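Input record (one chain):
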Amino acid sequence: MQSHDRVQVGIVEDDVIMGGSLVQRLNLEGYDPVWWRTGREAISGIGDQRPDVLICDIRLPDMTGEEVFTEALPNLHSTPVLFITAFGDIEQAVRLIRQGADEYVTKPFEMDEFLGRIAHLTNWNPREEEISQRSLGVSKAMRNIEDMLRRIADVESSVLFTGESGSGKEVASRFLHQVSPRKNDPFMAVNCAAIPSELMESELFGHERGAFTGAHERHLGYAERADEGILFLDEVGDLSPTLQSKLLRLVEERDFTRVGGEKHITFKARIVCATNVDLESEVAAGRFREDLFYRINVIPIPIPALREHPEDILALVRGYLSYFATRFRRDVRSMTVTAEEAILAHDWPGNIRELRNRVERAIAIARNPRISVHDLFPDILGADGESEIPTLKEIRDQAEKRHIERVLFITDGQLKAAADMLGVSRTTLWEKMHKLGFSRVEES
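The corresponding structure, as predicted from the sequence alone:
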């Protein structure tokens, strides 16, 4: 694959207006578009460029999109293909998908929905990726994790991310991918909890034509499509005993066979797993293989809950504000002071996923240029906009207490050093801590 920092999108489209619009919008969204106006140009370009995803019109001046797909197939490897056409033909769609295409959409289409399909096919959200490529956060906890990921980026060892649901395990694994020598190879994310157990083997390892009823064509699984990149198995604790056994072979032997096949295929990717359950307890209960646990847990990396690194909350919020304001075309770029304080006071039981959800909803329903508390927490506020919400003083006290706790952690509990960092006298700090109800207040 050609070396490039952004996800490369190949476009095969003879319509100048459509092609130009796609190139312009994809550039704005953070992709790297390459545009070919004829089928022959595309076939030649695909071999040279190896795009991360291919968008192809059906009707071209020199050949059909289906002919492009068939001729370029040897160079496409695991590249996802999305066909677009103004002539919706269900039979053609079925035929193309059976031949290995991934998606099929008809013109005209909503650009945001179309971009969502590209993001799904590439397992990459450009705006969120821009955040994660730079840094996982400003807190000491996330900086330590970032340093660890950079240290292990060039080794082959398996990694196991643990932590609560929504805490950012996949974001961390994508960061690992981006800082590793594999960054130009695929990142294949598999949610083990979302795929029915009876389909999981086929999805993970692929199947041969005729392997079972409905298997009309060969299907390449995630393990094969990962190529030399990263195979990310989220919620790995949900795998059935049979799949655990097959995954163990994949990790130990570095090869696999497609369902219904006999040929052994070399597995080239790095295994990265994640779980929100205690796998050691699952091993003790006999629900997870002990040998597999030790194979995937070579480098364990716990991801803290969002409430454990509140220093990162506002930075995440601002990133999501920018992303969703652009996506929804809303002139909303900031929030009120009260809204910020409410965000810092909230416990975030759903972690980063909840934070993202609340910001997205707030921008969708906001009536003013600045996000309010009610936009963020309508479920907590209630109909009157006031019930069950802390007072402004309570919010400020909580935020102040958390900030002092962070500084005390940095200074190892030394009041003088903490006071200097906070810009107050040691006496003022001691009195403030006593007032805020610190369980242990000592002069040091």
